[in-house]
Amino acid sequence: MLFYGIEMMKQGAEPLKSLPWFTSLLNGSGQSYFFAFAGAGAFSFITQSSTAVSILAIGLAQTGLLGPFPTMMAIYGANVGSTFARMALSSTLKGAGRQLTAYQDLFKIAGVALFVPLLYVEVLGRVPLVCRFIEWRIPVSEEVDDAQPQYLYDEALDEPATALDLIEKEQLRLARRLRRYSAALRTGPGSPERAEALLIDEPFAAVAARIDRFQHELVNHQLGPGETERLTKLQTRLSLTVYLADSMTTLTVVTAAVPPGGRLGDLVSTFVEALDFVLLTMIEAIESGDRSSLDLLKRITEDHGDLMQQVRQDYLAEERSIETADRAALLQVTCVFARVVWMTHRFARLIDASPVDGQVAERPAGTVGVLPGVVV
Q1: CA distance to 82, 94, 114, 220, per residue, from 85 (Å)
Q2: CA-based angle 282:287:289, to the nearest 5?
Q3: Would you say 304 and 364 are in contact if contact means Cβ atoms under 8 Å apart?
Q4: How many angstroms separate the CA atoms of 269 and 272, rounded?
Q5: pLDDT score at 279
Q6: What single-letter DSSP state applies at residue 368?
Q7: Burial, 11: exposed, middle or buried (Cβ in 10 Å; 0-12, 13-18, 19+)?
Q8: Three-state SS at 369
Q9: CB-based contacts of 283: which residues, under 8 Å, 6+ apart?
Q10: DSSP H helical segments within the chain, as ranges?
Q11: What is the dihedral angle through the alpha carbons of 45, 50, 52, 57, rounded to the nearest 10 degrees?
Q12: Of 21, 71, 229, 306, which has fewest CB within 10 angstroms of its CB?
């Protein structure tokens, strides 16, 4: 029941993200831990329950509205508030009953008197104490966090405009993860970064599936023409983002055996840097919607004919004794590169403010735009 209550509080607190005054209030209180302590203490005194206040604080923390230290102070304050409530209620008791309640009150107040100063020492003195100990003792798995959507909640479906904004934010989170692949591709074969990059797939797919379900559920609500068009574009953007992740995973696997040195290794490194620049430009265009970023993204991913074919021919002409494995790796790398660039160009058209064609044009095989660092 406790965990069910936390989940219900989390879902109930999600709509509060869209209230600027509430977010501003919590952000302001994040600098004043006494506010969190006193507010939780007063609420706990009124409700006579530290558990209810703790569940509320944890729910706000899980939605990102309350930081870890204010949450800790709220829990400490909740214990003090419920203690004073119990002291007031037990004031008429006598004998052993009064002694037992006094012992419990002393235990909780002593604990708060110890842990509140430790929190201030940890925050102000930057000394790793309680919070750091808990993080070390019970580490949070990055994969678990990455597999959970941060912005989506079912109640937002009743407000299509808000739901569409939340979908955009969640898709942006996925797009930012794509650069983890390029960071891993810069490292050599068998590196820990490459192994971690391959672990991105499962949580990435989990969040993408949750976004997809949310989008389909939104279709069943009453949408205006503009909202329907926007949702259609977001559905296509999600599909492209998933395809981009699949392509980057393929590139990570294909280049796993390519040594960093040598002609092929240098060529792969050039492709990786170019892809990272494309992804970075795409993310900037999504975040800002700036016309210059959009124009740059479309320009560097435009179709310029047989560039990839020329790259393959030049490499094979210089390396006449190339091994079969290297030949296959070259073919796969250039094909994946061309596919990623084409999909990014399609993505640029979707985030552009101008009208988008209803149908996606077929991509000529082996075509790609002119990119920084790709020299034929």
Answers
A1: 5, 17, 21, 48
A2: 80
A3: no
A4: 5
A5: 93
A6: -
A7: middle
A8: coil
A9: 172, 175, 176, 178, 179
A10: 2-13, 20-29, 33-47, 50-62, 68-89, 96-124, 130-137, 142-146, 160-185, 192-198, 201-219, 225-254, 262-288, 291-300, 307-318, 324-351
A11: 100
A12: 21
Cβ proximity of 376 and 314 under 8 Å = yes
Q: What is the pLDDT of residue 358?
A: 38
DSSP state of 127: -
Domains of the chain: 2-139 (no CATH), 143-257 (1.20.58), 258-376 (no CATH)
Contacts of residue 137, Cβ cutoff 8 Å, sequence gap at least 6: none
Contact 110, 73 (CB under 8 A): no
* Cα–Cα distance, 44 to 49 (Å, whole number): 5
Query: Whole-model pTM?
Result: 0.63
List the single range of 70-74, 76-80, 120-124, 371-375 with lowest mean pLDDT. Answer: 371-375
pLDDT band at 167 (very low <50, low <70, confident <90, very high): very high
Give CA–CA dist 155/153, Å, rounded: 6
Residues 6+ apart with CB under 8 A from 302: 345, 369, 370
User: Helix, strand, or coil here: 94?
Assistant: coil
